[in-house]
Structures are given as C-alpha cells and as structure tokens.
Amino acid sequence: MNNFVWHSPCKIFFGAYTQADIAAECSQYGKKVLIVYGSERIKSNGLFDNVAKQFVTAGIEYLQLGGVLPNPRLSTVHEGVAICKKEKVDFILAIGGGSVIDTAKAIAVGAKYSGDVWDFYMNKGKITETLPIGCILTLAATGSECNGNSVISNWDSKMKRAVGTPLLLPKFSILDPALTATVPRDHTVYGMVDIMAHVFEQYFSPTKSTYLVDRMSEAVMKTVVAIGPKLLTKLDDYGYRAEILWSGTQALNLSLSCGKDTDFASHDIEHEVSAIYDIPHGGGLAIIFPNWMKYVYKTDINKFYNFAVNVWCIDPKGKSDDTVALEGIEATRAFFTSLGAPSTLAHYKIGGDKIDEMAEKCTMFGPVGGFKKLEKQDVAAILKMCL
Amino acid sequence: MNNFVWHSPCKIFFGAYTQADIAAECSQYGKKVLIVYGSERIKSNGLFDNVAKQFVTAGIEYLQLGGVLPNPRLSTVHEGVAICKKEKVDFILAIGGGSVIDTAKAIAVGAKYSGDVWDFYMNKGKITETLPIGCILTLAATGSECNGNSVISNWDSKMKRAVGTPLLLPKFSILDPALTATVPRDHTVYGMVDIMAHVFEQYFSPTKSTYLVDRMSEAVMKTVVAIGPKLLTKLDDYGYRAEILWSGTQALNLSLSCGKDTDFASHDIEHEVSAIYDIPHGGGLAIIFPNWMKYVYKTDINKFYNFAVNVWCIDPKGKSDDTVALEGIEATRAFFTSLGAPSTLAHYKIGGDKIDEMAEKCTMFGPVGGFKKLEKQDVAAILKMCL
C-alpha cells in the first residue's frame, strides 16, 4: 500500500427533497451566484424555480448560463468566465450531470485567472485559486460532485482534456435520487458504464497489498451489477436510483484509490474518440474497456482472476487462471451489452482512419496508464480491437 | 435508504513517516498545544521527541498530559481541562489509541465550558464549542481518529458514557501503520474485535434497501477476517497493520451508516460491564456480540443469512435460513475465539450478581438498539447468556 492523503470535505446531502435548503448552503459562500445548467428540463420540472425562489427569499442575486452539452465545450466555459468577471460572481451552482459540473469547475478556475483557462487543461501552469462551487446532481455517472476533476472539450483543436485539483472539490453536493428518475434509459446506461469504468481504473492497479480498498471497489461493482438491470426495468424506482447514485459518488470520490496507483488509460483513450466524434462518453467506455482488459490482463492475471471470481462469480474450478481471467472480461462485455451499451466503434459509424491521430494525441504528454503503461502503438492497437 | 448528510472533513495522512510534518498541520490551528498521551512508550520509542522537536522548530509551545488509561477516566479529563483553562491552550494533540483520543476530545469540550464536562455525557445540554484537536494514532480499533465520538468513564458513579458531535471530528489524523506495529497481541485482538463490532452495529440495521453500504460493510469485515489471523502470526508486518488500520477508520468514520439506522446496543451493554469491572472493551465485545446476535437474529433472518453467506462463506445449500443464520453467528464466535478473545464473562471472573444493576443503567434513558429495541429485561437476558 502506498502512502496517501485522504481529505474529502465536500458536504453531501443525500435523499429526497435535499435541495430544500440550498439557499442556506450557498449563502455561506457568496451573495451573487451563477447557476450553470444543461437542458431546459430543470425549468420545466420546477427544480430551477425552486432554487430561484429560495435565492430571492435569502437575498442571493443570481445569473444563469444554460445549454451545457455532453462533452462540454470550452466555448461555454468562456461564456461563463466572461459573466463571472463582468458581474463579479462569487459562487457557482451547477445543476445537472457531470458535464454541467465540469463546466462549472472550469468557469470557477477561469474566473480567477487572467489568461485562457484552457492553459491548465494543456498542462501549462498550476491552478492556485478558484471560485467556490456547489452542485445539485441530476445524473449518476462521473463522480464530479465529489472530486476535484473537470474534463472539457476544445472543438477548435479537437482536444478533450482533464484537470484535477483539491481546489475544485465542491463545497457541497445535493444528491436527490428522485432528480435522476427522469434520466432516459440510454443515459442511465452510459452513467452506469462510466461508474464501472471509474472503479476499474482504480481496481486494476500496479500497487500490491491493497486488500481492503479492493474489496470496497468490488462492493461498488457488485452493486451496479446487481441493481443496474433492475433499474432498467423500472427507471423511476427511487431505491434503485439511490443505489446507483451513491455508487457513482463512491466510484470516484477517490476513496477507492487510497494507497494505490491508478490507471485511467481507458478514459484517456475514450476522450480522444469523443473529442473527434462527439460520442457519448459512457458509450465509448463500454466499447474500449473490455478491449483494454484483453490487451493488458497478462500484466497481472491474478488481479483479473479475483475480478472474475469476486465480481462476476465465475466458478474457477477446473479452469486455468488465464481462462478464469478471460471469462471475467467476457462477463464485463456481456454485462455492458445486456444493458444495451455498444460494443464496437462501428456502432457509431467510426472507422479506423483516425486511429493514428487519436493514438498520437492520447500519448502527446507521454505514455498513459499505470497498470500497464501504453505507448502510442499500444493505444492504436486497442483502438483497432474496438473497430 | 434514509436521507443522510455525509460530511467528513478530517484530513488523513496515511503511511510511513507521515508524522514528519505534524508541526505544519498543528500550526494552522494553534500556537499552544496540549499533547495528551497514554503510556510512556511514546517517549521510549522516539515518537514524542520527534513531535516535540518539530514544535520547538516551528515556535509552537507545548504542554503534556500523560497516563491516560484504557476505559479513560473523567478524572484525567478534569486534569486536562484545568491545564487548558489555566494555560490558554488553543489546540490539543492526541498521541495514542482511542482512549487517548476520546480523552483529548473530552478535554476539548471542557476547555470551552464553564460547568463540568460530564454534563454532556449525561445528556445534559448540547456541545456548542470545542478546542480543535488532531491525532497521531498508535492503535487500530475505535475509529475515534475520524469521527466525533468520545467515550469516558466516571469512576465515582461507575458510569461509562458517550457523546457524539461533528464539532469533535479531528482536524487531521496521522495513521502510520508502523506506529501500531508494537501493539501487543492481546490489544491487537481487542482492536480487531472492536472494528468488527462497529461494522456489525451499522450492518445489522432495521433500514431496508441499503445494498451498496451493506457490501462496503462486508468489505471491511472480510478484510479483518482475512488479514487478522495473518497479522497475529507476524505482528510487525507493515502491510497487515496497514490493512487493519484503514479497516478501523472505515469501520467508524460513519460512511457505513450512510442512509441507515444503526444499533449500538452491544456497545452500550459492554460499557456497563467495563464501567464496573474495568475489563478491556474489545474483550467485552467479543463476549457480548455473538450472544446479542443469537438474541436478536429472528428480527431479520435474511440479514443474518446474508452475513453468513457473504462474510463467512457459509454454503447455504440444503439448509434452512435459520440454520444458515445460526452458522454465521457461530462462525463469528469461532473467529473471535481463534484470535484468542474471550467468550464468557467468567473469563474475567465476572458473575451474575450485578446483572440487574447493569441492565438498569444501560436502559436508564430508554431502550437501547435499533435493529431490535432492548428493554431492561432484554439486556439482562443477554448478559445472562454471557456468563
């Protein structure tokens, strides 16, 4: 086990109607709030009005920036930064899923920076100051509600890049399972794939002696495996939504990487695909991850053996370790397929013509991954397996 | 799942030599520190000197209060409160196990209170202000390093009582597995029993639909079951100590009670035993818990069935649910016995003569427990099973 620092001061309000006291939370941090959101759904379902009314009553002034899209755009971030600087906004409230929260985080950085916020996403300089942010989460997926990560797409350069700093940890996040109950089936599936992917990326670690954290990772995976299919039969079930929502937070609040090196190569590879083709992130991950697994599993067959037995209940009797490991990988693929997630890039009509470009960009700052370090040719090989 | 608030801003430094920067942490909160500790072991092994030297270099003045005993005494708390008030101490550093941390917490409350701090332990009034505290943990057991609980014994009234408030959450805790490597075998065992007990008390909940948190609870239990016996064969093994240390924190940082009602009746009952007989807390729990389980399991056989199958790998084939549940309880007893923990109060030469007094005091503020509410006669019945 590696040394680690665990510090997660984000305050989580979990449960029904937990957005009822949001003005009290926000007023601890600011008096002029920029509300960032995605679709207009939060206006038609009364959520925006509920928040706005609370703000008016509490004497909190608010501005708004809607229209955040999946694979959120740098251009939207720039809009938000301009508003914050012009209007002297002192707090940002994200109402939405990971794309909205990641946009809010990028705006929070840009509002306190004289240059272009994209600098930080291109590894130029270190974030030293941000506006505080809070979240009302409406989609279980990215874990962005309880970590300091932000992923933004720059459509000019066709780049999708991440930053991560404790400064971007939300002050609070409101997680009401009922607010996720109207997420359509496909995005519910993409969210669950994303959650599983986050756990994989911490579970498949080169670090030895991580028994407890591995078991906790398996707990999250087993929950998605057990509850996910039930949720798809009853999308508005509060209890199932609650399990998946809390799984999403646990999957990437970084508790599952305590003491471990991680391997986010599959996310890195997927970012290159969606930076060019604008496909749903969870869809891309469902395609890439089982192929990544097949490409790397021999690095530590024992880990994949445990994965197969503990998560997928593969019976190892009379089988070689290699067979058991491969059956676990096949079970992963079969699970994603059973949820309705795609398994090939062909599903999105993506061919092999840009594989070299994607592999090149993916490794522009050096090899990716930690379980197995992947050079450009490795990334290209995995992408070819995905066609 | 119930609504819940999860907020755990304690900063954990986990790993080898993580005490090396303690002055930097302490200086964020105060310039005059009371160091609270137990045995003189921390002076002979260099830990105290290491901290003291850092304080001198950083210009932090320090005072010290040693001699905290297991089942920590209110009299020691009073000593500490007097020092803090007289010397205008602004930060308390606990170096030790749960007893030391709980004493430091009680002193932190008393230092900001004009009356007797015991008032709060007797449910008189609400804690509204405390000194900040930090910890260097030297024993894996209570989880006090990452929660706001404190348990103190009053030897005048033979009462052992708890308080809990987020105000008492340590600002930081330093968890170096190497500092726990010299804990003797018996206290290592008591610590592991305490850890298991904490998980039981959150796992056996009356709340339904708690799938993920139940699996995470099982992850902690499985770790103690798998690693505990190995640790006892090699008490100074860093990796094993690390697993048990992190298990202790996870077991009672309250993440395992997110969305659940809990049942701390066994702790309540044990407190009455050790308040009179001053037995080791973990020893008392090892005796009481399997009997509590036998007394209550029919309240929710399904829960005990899952416990048996998921934690103890009991094969349920061809057995009634009742049999499987009872086999899980027997496995719990057998595990504690295999570690060398006691199974009857007779082990401590405790007879039945004070059972009525203990049951009376245990339920003085009403029935205890949540999985099954226990009245005085229930507590007495469980204690009789323990003889």
Q: Could you walk me through the main structural features you see in this protein, from its secondary elements to its overall organization?
A:
- The structure is a homodimer.
- The first copy, chain A, is α/β, with parallel strands linked by helices.
- The first copy, chain A, folds into 2 domains: about 10-180, Rossmann fold (3-Layer(aba) Sandwich), CATH 3.40.50; about 185-385, Dehydroquinate synthase-like - alpha domain (Dehydroquinate synthase-like, alpha domain, Up-down Bundle).
- Chain A contains 15 helices and 8 strands.
- In chain A, the strands form 2 sheets. In chain A, strands 1-8-5-4-2-3 form a 6-stranded parallel β-sheet, with helices on both faces. In chain A, strands 6-7 form a two-stranded antiparallel sheet.
- The interface of A and B includes residues 15 and 215 of A.
- Strand 1 (about 5-15) of chain A pairs antiparallel with strand 1 (about 5-15) of chain B, so a sheet runs across the interface.
Largest interface: A-B, 38 and 38 residues
What structural class should be given to the helix and strand makeup of chain A?
A: alpha/beta
Give the SSE string of chain A: EHEHHEHEHHEEEEHHHHHHHHH
Spatial shape of chain A: globular
CATH superfamily of the largest domain in chain A: Dehydroquinate synthase-like - alpha domain
Number of contiguous helices of chain A: 15
- Helix proportion of residues of chain A, in percent? 40-55%
The overall number of domains of chain A is 2
Uncertain segments of chain A are: none
Fill in the CATH topology of the largest domain in chain A: Dehydroquinate synthase-like, alpha domain
Rg of chain A from C-alpha positions?
A: 20 Å
Strand content of chain A: 5-15%
Number of strands of chain A: 8
User: What characterizes the major β-sheet of chain A?
Assistant: 6 strands, parallel
Distance between the termini of chain A: 37 Å
Overall pLDDT confidence of chain A = 97
